[in-house]
Amino acid sequence: MAKKDEPMSEGEEETEAESISESESESQSLSGGGESKGGLEYIMSLPDVPTKLPPHMELQRTRVFCNADAPIHTDTVQYSGAFAALGEDNSFRLDHFRKNFRIEVMRYSEDDMEFDMIGIDPALANAFRRILIAEVPTMAIEKVLIANNTSVVQDEVLAHRLGLIPISVDPRLFEYADNNAPNERNTIVFKLHAHCERVKGERRRHTVKANDLKWLPNGSEFLLESGDSNSNSTSKPKTHTSFSCSQDSLPEFSNNPIGFKGKLNDIIIAKLGSGQEIELEAHAVKGIGKTHAKWSPVATTWYRMLPEVVLLEEIEDEMAEKLKSKCPVGVFDIEDIANGKKKLTVARPRACTLCRECIREGEEGEKRVSLRRVKDHFIFTIESTGALPPDVLFTEAVKILESKCERVISDLS
Amino acid sequence: MGLKQDSSEEHAKQNQDCFECWFPFYTFDNLSDPMEKWLSFGKQLPYDSGIDKQFLAAPIKSSVDKYQLVPEFLKVRGLVKQHLDSFNYFVNVGIQKIVSANDRIVSSVDPSIYIRFNSVKIGEPSIPRDGVSEKITPQLCRLSDMTVHSRKSYPKIRLEKKNVIIGRMPIMLRSCCCVLYGKDEAQLAELGDVDTGTTKKRIIIDSDKKGNINASVTSSTEERKSKTVILMEKGQMYLHLNQFVNKIPIMIVMKAMGMESDQEVVQMVGRDPRYSDLLLPSIRECAKHGVYTKQQALEHLEAKVKKSTYSGASSEKVFFLFFVRVRRDSFRAKCIYVAVMLRRMIDAYLNKDTMDDKDYVGNKRLELSGQLISLLFEDLFKSMIEEVKKRMDMNMARLSRSSRFDPLQYVHGDSISAGLERTLSTGNFNIKRFRMDRKGMTQVLARLSFIGTLGHMTRISPQFEKSRKVSGPRALQPSQWGMLCPCDTPEGEACGLVKNLALMTHVTTDEEEGPLISLCYCLGVEDLELLSGEELHTPNSFLVIFNGLILGKHQRPQRFATAMRKLRRAGKIGEFVSVFVNEKQGRVYVVPDGSGDKNCSILKTGSINKRCVYIASDGGRVCRPLVIADKGISRIKEHHMKELLDGVRTFDDFLRDGLMEYLDVNEENNALIALYEGKSTPATTHIEIEPFTILGICAGLIPFPHHNQSPRNTYQCAMGKQAMGNIAYNQLFRMDTLLYLLVYPQRPLLTTKTIELVGYDKLGAGQNATVAVMSYSGYDIEDAIVMNKSSLDRGFGRCIVLKRCSAIRQKYENNTEDRIIRPNREGDGAGRMQILDDDGIAAPGEIIRPGDIYINKETPIITRGPTVSPAGLPDRAYRPSIQTFKGPEGESCVVDKVALFNDKNNNLCIKFSIRHTRRPEVGDKFSSRHGQKGVCGTIVQQEDFPFSERGICPDLIMNPHGFPR
Amino acid sequence: MEHGSFSDNSKSTFSLTDEDHTLANAVRFTLNQDPRVSFCGYSIPHPSENRVNIRIQTTGAPAREVLKDACQDLMMMCQHVRSTFDTVVADYKTRNPSEEMDTDDSDNVG
């Protein structure tokens, strides 16, 4: 569990707050000590006083050290005056951020992507992750009208299962339903009618899958019970939705019917025995993952800091073999050097999962290998459920954070 | 792994010529405990330079994987077979015995008229409906609140040859009378009643009682049960018997039985001067009473007899140690018995170590449902016979008989049926004939979880009250190894008293004694009556005791025991007959009576066991199968197991071929049992089949129990029964009052062998969770857990609660009847009647809210008085008696199913099953499989949850401070 | 929404409803890097309340303005992240068109 310390960023507020006060006092005491010896100016003017951070501090500032017992230097130094005594300005400069910030796409496909985000604070990376999980909206089935269900799956369970099926539709084309009547702008209606025929002397089974859900662009087909007595004369019988026009007449859907994409079609909803039947209508609305996980657009999304594996000494022959075999993900490689000797090299540091097998032997191991993480380099992975491609999801997430800021600004002024 | 196995085989090959080779295969299996093996291969696979080469090179004792025997055993015996066996024994043998023992009802007026019961037979389960008897299935009964009954009929001769029904008998499910008997699972599924175990409405408590001899002989032909106590008070010995007003000096009893000479008594007890010293006060006491002859003794005794129904009885009719048969008026056997009792008592007095351990499992007998029912039936049957006889006599005494006399008309089974049913439903066994008055003998089988049900059926409850503050009976008994589960016991007041059977335990049923006794005599047992007191106690002779009865003595006990065992292994005598040679110096069961007086102790004629050979064939002993070994080498060879796997050999074949046998607790003392074949020595006589079978069903579900702190296993045994999941294959068709089901139950990722054996992987409970161990949020103190909201959204821990409501359409004495009417769809009551169908009964699938009416019933206002035609009754003659649903506010419940049926009194009865699906909430209890329970302290959004390097997000977080150390 | 003292506008606690760590931690980050801030921190008083309190103490500037600036900074950062991301992804897609084709959009809709 300890290896996850850094990524578990929920706990980090407190450590960071502490670190701030610590570094603050540190810098004060440093500067205080300096003054007593004849003034800061004087010391700073000395030739061997660095204007930059000393290398060990720079290392501590930018790397997490993963030792066998626990990771250390896990904090990110945010306070603007943290290194003031050392002549380093830690305050925020947008141009500086712009200069250093980089993104590199590692992998991209329809439903998942991996990219590196370099030069950003964990607070922001985490904000993106959180928004992706909980606040990017999607469409999901919220209301299920069951006309007939003789299957073994109970109505509630069936409805719950339907809700969890990801619908391949761009949620940006829809509005939140809130308390409005269901219309073509906020509701998608699906119909499911599955039946397993009863054949004598045969044990039939029928599997109901997601692609059995049929899109109803004209809205609900179930009539509202109370409506039939007084609205007999009106041409259109009242149903559970009030669509003003058919959804497939809208330009967005005219030649792009709403349904399920690829493998999502094979999601099993229920299994029917002979003679069993399910007839229902499912109404999908827009929502966010915070309300219910079914609206979460991602299967999961996470980031990890770039691992850095450093060999502190030359490791040869037997020890090299041993270390190589210890690593379950194959971080190390062996290189032949002169006169039949072999040398250990770090071939794939990115693969390191921080299992710490290589440094498990106590101090000996830690002297040989140093496992580190780069604090401002995030390997970010998004696994989409299929509604939107992952890059769109990320852009949406950033937009949501922007709008949050905007809201605060407008609230304050 | 591959590496190591190769090397092992290599070693084996190299050494093949240098040691005697028994089997062609050499594997590491059973070399050590499986866990050890597992660990070792994890640690030292590539770098095992430090291993002792000598050890590796040593010949590996070849062993056979005997695991397959366990499922085979369970296939033959089943998990709860002991109940069925016991019931089947009663149905097939016991009931016939009872009836043939009391087969005649002879009129005392005219002895030439009698009724004789020829045989008894239990018919197929059925119920009379409209005069026709219909066959029924348990599922039907379950729905209609009835007990499965069968008719018992007795073909009889003498008057006519017709079957007479003498009663209706409740039938244990899956017993040989049950329709489910002999059906395979597919067939059972069609009958709508399948558990991998068995289903049963009620179980009868198995109570253990101390193995005193009196108790073990009650089932003999005599209709009585007595308790003979010899006690020692102020240095004098007395006999205490219920028939006597107060205790009788033992010497008077001896004299009454014909031992007039004091010397003879002393000789019988033993010539050691210490014995005679202790006997002296008793002899003196006897002389003080002036009793010297048999006649005087009898007169003395007669004065002491309680004046009761047996008023006219002479002392000979006082049943004293009645199980010792009196042959030709010779009391010699009884005298010897008393003498042996005296000797043991004096031994105990001289040496306290020789007292019996009353918690010793070998001294206990379990009472199973069959035995209890047979007692009950015997009592009821005799009452019926008496009743019939009385009626017959009355009828015969009447001079003018108008109709043809048919004594059979008095033979009807109402009293038996009613008696059986009453006793089973109240659980109060009050049988005067056997002086039995016990309460709570039947329990409703716990049906809230599959494991709970199985656990309930292997439970053993003690007879005495639980409040006693004693530690002795609660302690773990070494003798319960392999018989009773060491982990599974409740916490609190019943701790250690309520036990559970281990996986392979079998409980014996009674076996025919006669042939065994004559066999013993054939094998060289010298008859007791031919022995003098002197001969009785010669140092080299062993008493032979059969079911607590002294048969005689034998000069060469080991030879005798070996012969008996050989016969048993050959299948000539029953497989559950136990032969036990006790070579220890005498142990007598003496309990201080609590008065603090050291001289005053009561001897219950416990096992009289100094240098004895015990043969036991009685019911209620626990025993288990073991592999027989010759000089430490298992009789089961690889090819046997292969035959088993190929299906050409069954478990019973192993028994028949003498490869395995059943040992009871006493006989285990004569065996040296090796845990693994590899650990056997030349002295080893038996080898365990599988070590995990010492655990019971509940403890068997714990993965790696040997790595747990001991009480955790006990906690888990209690908690495993509460786990939600599946209950039975027919769970969705059941109409239980309360049913908890999990929406998505899962097979455990880590299964144990027991899990596979009991079918927990098929009818599982619980789900596999991804768990993080960390302190988080502060809402996790004191074993609370933090749960992931998204996991719950996605269906983790979702469950279904089914509750039952029922309504009866009652018929009244004036021929009126309740009616269920069409609801009015308009008007003020319409809102509450929304879920009703046109027939006035709630429709399945409707959402039911608190206050909703689920049956629109009306009751006639006048229900007594003269008969009226129900059709002509006007509407105003009825008043509404609607039934409304009372559930908690805010829960959305659904009518799951509605069942209509006729109940016992032929009223229409409607049962509604109301379903509520709920997701875990704060305060719900969760547990691992290691006795680690905790309540949900808070539910947290997924984005606030930790995630791993590979993006895995846990379902729940446990606090590391809650882990036991 | 703002709880501060009337006399001293350099110290203030802002209570944001319907927000959580997402915004608060990010804002705290930008606040911390502002040299005018002498203290900042946030807390969620109770997990069942959708509310987060942000405390700001400055060296003299009005806390409200500092918070606004911090939000502004955060927005700018987001915009930069977005634009960078979009260009990089577009770039990647043009460079690896085959990989994109890999995904099954043939049976796109059921």
UniProtKB/TrEMBL annotation, chain A:
<dbReference type="GO" id="GO:0005736">
    <property type="term" value="C:RNA polymerase I complex"/>
</dbReference>
<dbReference type="InterPro" id="IPR011262">
    <property type="entry name" value="DNA-dir_RNA_pol_insert"/>
</dbReference>
<dbReference type="InterPro" id="IPR050518">
    <property type="entry name" value="Rpo3/RPB3_RNA_Pol_subunit"/>
</dbReference>
<feature type="compositionally biased region" description="Polar residues">
    <location>
        <begin position="227"/>
        <end position="247"/>
    </location>
</feature>
<feature type="region of interest" description="Disordered">
    <location>
        <begin position="1"/>
        <end position="37"/>
    </location>
</feature>
<dbReference type="InterPro" id="IPR011263">
    <property type="entry name" value="DNA-dir_RNA_pol_RpoA/D/Rpb3"/>
</dbReference>
<dbReference type="GO" id="GO:0046983">
    <property type="term" value="F:protein dimerization activity"/>
</dbReference>
<dbReference type="InterPro" id="IPR033901">
    <property type="entry name" value="RNAPI/III_AC40"/>
</dbReference>
<feature type="domain" description="DNA-directed RNA polymerase RpoA/D/Rpb3-type">
    <location>
        <begin position="112"/>
        <end position="411"/>
    </location>
</feature>
<dbReference type="InterPro" id="IPR022842">
    <property type="entry name" value="RNAP_Rpo3/Rpb3/RPAC1"/>
</dbReference>
<dbReference type="GO" id="GO:0003899">
    <property type="term" value="F:DNA-directed RNA polymerase activity"/>
</dbReference>
<feature type="compositionally biased region" description="Acidic residues">
    <location>
        <begin position="8"/>
        <end position="25"/>
    </location>
</feature>
<feature type="region of interest" description="Disordered">
    <location>
        <begin position="226"/>
        <end position="247"/>
    </location>
</feature>
<dbReference type="Pfam" id="PF01193">
    <property type="entry name" value="RNA_pol_L"/>
</dbReference>
<dbReference type="GO" id="GO:0005666">
    <property type="term" value="C:RNA polymerase III complex"/>
</dbReference>
From TrEMBL, chain B:
<dbReference type="InterPro" id="IPR007121">
    <property type="entry name" value="RNA_pol_bsu_CS"/>
</dbReference>
<feature type="domain" description="RNA polymerase Rpb2">
    <location>
        <begin position="443"/>
        <end position="507"/>
    </location>
</feature>
<dbReference type="Pfam" id="PF04565">
    <property type="entry name" value="RNA_pol_Rpb2_3"/>
</dbReference>
<feature type="domain" description="RNA polymerase beta subunit protrusion">
    <location>
        <begin position="78"/>
        <end position="416"/>
    </location>
</feature>
<dbReference type="InterPro" id="IPR014724">
    <property type="entry name" value="RNA_pol_RPB2_OB-fold"/>
</dbReference>
<keyword id="KW-0479">Metal-binding</keyword>
<keyword id="KW-0240">DNA-directed RNA polymerase</keyword>
<dbReference type="InterPro" id="IPR007645">
    <property type="entry name" value="RNA_pol_Rpb2_3"/>
</dbReference>
<keyword id="KW-0808">Transferase</keyword>
<comment type="similarity">
    <text>Belongs to the RNA polymerase beta chain family.</text>
</comment>
<feature type="domain" description="RNA polymerase Rpb2">
    <location>
        <begin position="651"/>
        <end position="680"/>
    </location>
</feature>
<dbReference type="InterPro" id="IPR007644">
    <property type="entry name" value="RNA_pol_bsu_protrusion"/>
</dbReference>
<comment type="function">
    <text>DNA-dependent RNA polymerase catalyzes the transcription of DNA into RNA using the four ribonucleoside triphosphates as substrates.</text>
</comment>
<dbReference type="Pfam" id="PF00562">
    <property type="entry name" value="RNA_pol_Rpb2_6"/>
</dbReference>
<protein>
    <recommendedName>
        <fullName>DNA-directed RNA polymerase subunit beta</fullName>
        <ecNumber>2.7.7.6</ecNumber>
    </recommendedName>
</protein>
Automatic annotation (TrEMBL), chain C:
<keyword id="KW-0240">DNA-directed RNA polymerase</keyword>
<dbReference type="GO" id="GO:0006383">
    <property type="term" value="P:transcription by RNA polymerase III"/>
</dbReference>
<dbReference type="GO" id="GO:0005736">
    <property type="term" value="C:RNA polymerase I complex"/>
</dbReference>
<dbReference type="InterPro" id="IPR008193">
    <property type="entry name" value="RNA_pol_Rpb11_13-16kDa_CS"/>
</dbReference>
<dbReference type="Pfam" id="PF13656">
    <property type="entry name" value="RNA_pol_L_2"/>
</dbReference>
<keyword id="KW-0539">Nucleus</keyword>
<dbReference type="GO" id="GO:0003899">
    <property type="term" value="F:DNA-directed RNA polymerase activity"/>
</dbReference>
<keyword id="KW-0804">Transcription</keyword>
<dbReference type="InterPro" id="IPR009025">
    <property type="entry name" value="RBP11-like_dimer"/>
</dbReference>
<dbReference type="GO" id="GO:0006362">
    <property type="term" value="P:transcription elongation by RNA polymerase I"/>
</dbReference>
<dbReference type="InterPro" id="IPR033898">
    <property type="entry name" value="RNAP_AC19"/>
</dbReference>
<dbReference type="InterPro" id="IPR022905">
    <property type="entry name" value="Rpo11-like"/>
</dbReference>
<feature type="domain" description="DNA-directed RNA polymerase RBP11-like dimerisation">
    <location>
        <begin position="12"/>
        <end position="83"/>
    </location>
</feature>
<dbReference type="GO" id="GO:0003677">
    <property type="term" value="F:DNA binding"/>
</dbReference>
<protein>
    <recommendedName>
        <fullName>DNA-directed RNA polymerases I and III subunit RPAC2</fullName>
    </recommendedName>
</protein>
